[in-house]
Amino acid sequence: MKELLKKYENKEPEIVFNWKDPETYAEGWTVINSLRGGAAGGGTRMRNGLDMNEVLSLAKTMEIKFTVSGPAIGGAKSGINFDPKDPRKKGVLERWYAAVSPLLKSYYGTGGDLNVDEIHEVIPITEESGVWHPQEGVFNGHFKPTEADKINRIGQLRHGVIKVIESSNYSPDVLRKYTVADMITGFGVAEAVKQYYNIYGGSVKGKKAVVQGFGNVGAAAAFYLSQMGAKIVGIIDISGGLINEEGFTFEEITNLFLAKNGNTLVSDDLISFDEANDKIWSIKTEIFAPCAASRLITLNQIDQMIDSGLEVISCGANVPFADKEIFFGTIMEHTDYRVSLIPDFISNCGMARVFAYFMERKVEMTDEAIFNDTSNIIRDALQKVYNKNKLKTEISATAFEIALNQLI
User: Start and end of every Glutamate/phenylalanine/leucine/valine/L-tryptophan dehydrogenase C-terminal domain (predicted)?
Assistant: First the structure.
């Protein structure tokens, strides 16, 4: 696996598109690792300090994710070095998507990512640049449909991603009109835990869980884990944390989800980040869902959790460990050898899978069909890992080997 990974990491990307905004300091990159299957896909992110290497590593991660989620295309990513809180953000995105629109028409599909919203920014702004849908390039490059078929499938994709969830099984409040895009990634993170116990033995019910991050992914993961019967004992977010070693009730977790301010945890009982960070890693927990930013978790933090009874980690964040390597760094490897570590490209593949699902010819548009499809994809990926390695350790190493053998 290590040799395969080294070979994959060292392979130069096929296309690097670099853009400098004429009106601000913003600089952007689209990195296309390969045009496997005639196309490539990956979202658009924005943050201060972003560089081309970050975009490259995420493009390579996307290519591995597509081996699980489908379609069988190459990995790509777009990133813009700019402050997302700057009032000039909309203009930057408009100029960026105008510049990158020929790629989006031909062979590249994008979506929302860190600080860039799929529904309110990506879709309307790309439309202004003459792109039918941000995934149009994947249709043209990979599926090569007839014009009529493309119109139908793009319509299906457009409606499916922004579909309002009608079932209380999947929404914390149907009256607030949460969409599939709002909930599916966190659902996948929780579902990976459920499928892990189904395959390797045991049950989510009654297990204690800690969630890092309380944005779209972390809050949804906490909601679904709690719904499954897990006891959320700790939540840590940039704004602070909450700890209850007996576990919050499902009603309490639902209320926290509904009370959050954007991506921020809100509660009268919030303790400071420093206090939460000092305590949360050593409380007894079996499940850990890192759903905050990439490259945060230290070796000391993970060892404290393992020593406190940790059984499984389901990654909501891409590369959650504080490693310098693109993929399989020393902290991740250490963790993978000690506990069950479900890699990000399986556990957080929900949104990528939803795109793939709606790109198919004609699919069922019910909440149950959409969410069950993601659940089944995650189950199948974990089953393939189990079939190759029945140990509860080295799950990530085995998953990487399965993926890389499809790519190299």
Answer: 181-407
Q: Which of 311, 303, 308 is nearest to 334 (CA)?
A: 303
Query: Helices then strands (H, E): number in the chain?
Result: 16, 12
pLDDT of residue 114: 86
- What is the spatial distance between Cα 257 and Cα 244, in angstroms, rounded to a whole number? 16
**How far is CA 216 from each of CA 135, 184, 223, rounded to the nearest angstrom?**
22, 9, 11
CA distances from 63 to 14, 32, 66, 76, 299 (A): 13, 9, 5, 7, 27
Whether 197 and 221 have beta carbons less than 8 Å apart is answered as no
> What are the structure tokens assigned to 220, written together?
């949804």
CA dist 292 and 238 (Å) reads: 9
- What is the tens place of the pLDDT at every residue in 3-28? 999 999 999 999 999 999 999 999 99
Asked if 103 and 20 count as a contact pair (C-beta separation under 8 A), the reply is: no
State pLDDT tens for residues 355-367.
999 998 888 999 9
109-90-316-319 Cα dihedral, nearest 10 degrees:
80
Q: Give the pair of three-digit tokens for residue 274.
A: 């420093």
* Furthest-apart CA atoms within the chain: distance in Å: 58
For residues 142 and 74, give the distance between their C-alpha atoms in angstroms, rounded to a whole number. 10
Residue 275: how many other CB atoms lie within 10 Å: 13
Residue 1 pLDDT > 90: no
Token pair in block for residue 262:
């954007």
